[in-house]
Sequence to fold (401 residues):
Amino acid sequence: MNTQPDSSAQNSCPEENKHIPLCVPEIRGNEWKYVKDCLDTSWVSSVGDYVNRFEDMLKQKAECDHAVATVNGTSALHIALLVAGVRPDDEVLVSNLTFIAPANAIRYAGAWPLFIDAEEQFWQMDVQQAVDFLEQGCEWKDGNLYNKVTDRRIGAVLPVHILGHPVEMQPLLEAARKFELPVIEDATESLGASYQGKMTGSLGDIACFSFNGNKLITTGGGGMITTSREDWSGKARYLTTQAKDDEVEYCHHEIGYNYRLTNVQAAMGCAQMELVDEYILAKHRIAERYRDGLSDLPGLTLMRQAEWAQSVWWMYTIQIDERQFGCGSRDLLKHLQQNNIQTRPLWQPMHLSPAHTQTSRLKYDVSEKLYREALSLPCSVGLSESDQQRVINEIHQACAR
Ligand SMILES: Cc1ncc(COP(=O)(O)O)c(C=O)c1O
Fold:
C-alpha cells in the first residue's frame, strides 16, 4: 500500500491544511549510514552482516531463539505454513478480519483457509469460536483431525494479532495442544506487543513479521520468521534459499523459494530496530491523545487493551455507531478526506472476499459490523501533536453536524 503523501501537494498547502497521511515510515536514524556501508562494500545481496544483525535484533525483541529474514511478511507466512507441515488440501483456521495475506499464503501452500470471526471487545480472532469448531465441528480419524463437513484434515491454526493487539492465545494454545495442531502466529502488525507478559511472535510454534512501509519498523519490504525450534528455523532458512543442498554442486532435493531479504534492506532494518522502543512510545502517546480527545464523543468506541495484553497501538482505530455519532464511518472518511486527512476502513472480511471461497460457513457478525463501522486514523510514528489535534477537531466537527 502506498501511504506516502504527495510531496507536491504537501508543499503547495498551507500548514493548517497540509496532508496528514494514515501511517508513513519514520526514517531518522542510521539508515543512510548503514545502507551506504552496504553500497561502499558491495555487500548488497542476500547475505551479509546486516542480515545476521537484523535477525539477532528481531530474535531479541520477540524473545525467540531463532529468526530467519525473508523478502516480505507474506513469504514468511508461506514458509511458516510449509515448515509447520501444512499439506495441500488441508484446512487452516485463520482470522476472518485481517489483511488478505495470511489467507493467500494458505492457498500458496495448497491448503484452504477456514475463517474464524472476530470478537467484539478487542477485535481479534474469536478464539471461543475456533475452539468450539475444533471440539464440535471436527472428528479424529487415523491420528488426525478432520472437518466433519468437508472431510479435510485440519493442518494448523493461524491467529492474526491485528492492529497491534494480541489475540487471546491461552484457550487457542490449549486446544491446539489437545488436537496436536501447530500454531502459526501472524505477528506482522504486533511487533513489541505481549500477551500475559510473553511477546507476540513467541507464543505459538512459529511466527511471522512484516516490515512493509506502514509497519512499526520498515525495510521498504521485508519479513521475518521467528521460532524457538531449531529444526524449524533450519528448514525455513533452507526453503527460503532455494532449498540448496550443496554450495558447490548446486544440488537441490526440494522445491525451494528465493525469499531471502537483502543486506541493503536488512541494513535499514537494523537502523529502524535501534529506535523501535522510541517508536512504540510514540504509538502509545498517539493512542493516549486520541483517548483524551475523543472519549467524550457519543457513538464512538475507541480501541481497547485487554488486561492480559500490552498493545503497541500500531494502527489506531475507532468504531462508529452511525445513529449516535451522527454519521457513519464512510461519511467520516469522506469528511476527513475533504480536509486532507487520510483514514481507512478495516479490511473486507475474508468470508466476503471474492478471492476466497470456503465451504464451512460459520457466523461472521462481528467482522461484518467492524467492517461497516471501523475507521483507522492517522498514527504515523512522526505524527505531530498539532496534526493529531487537527484530526481530533475534524472528528468533533463531523459529529457536531
Ligand atoms: C496481518 C498481515 N499479515 C501479513 C501481511 C503481509 O506482509 P507483507 O506486506 O510484508 O507481505 C500484512 C501486511 O502487509 C498484514 O497486515
Q: What stands out?
A: The pocket of pyridoxal-5'-phosphate is lined by residues 72-74, 98-99, 101-102, 160, 186, 188-189, 210, 212, 223 (CB under 6 Å). The chain has two domains: 31-274, 276-400.
